[in-house]
Design a protein that fits this description.
alpha+beta; Alpha-Beta Plaits; four-stranded antiparallel sheet; globular
Amino acid sequence: MLQHIVMWRLHDKAQAPQLIARLQALADLPMVGALEAGLNISPRPVAWDVVLVSSFADEAALEAYRVHPDHQAVVSYLADLAADTAVVDYLQ
């Protein structure tokens, strides 16, 4: 099992609900094992605004997700929205 975690700092935090809705729609892709997206509630300055936690059977499934047109549409949407991005992929 591979865990894929992505966090974003947004230029405009008011856009977070729309981003989360787009991310949650990716849960329907066949290669996604599980997917959650959420809005940060911590006021700490080191906190990120939005997080995506998803799981995949293996690296091939993650790569299929990465190049899928629906995922690429979200990546394009994020191009102007995200001020910063962090990613961690790890095997369980």
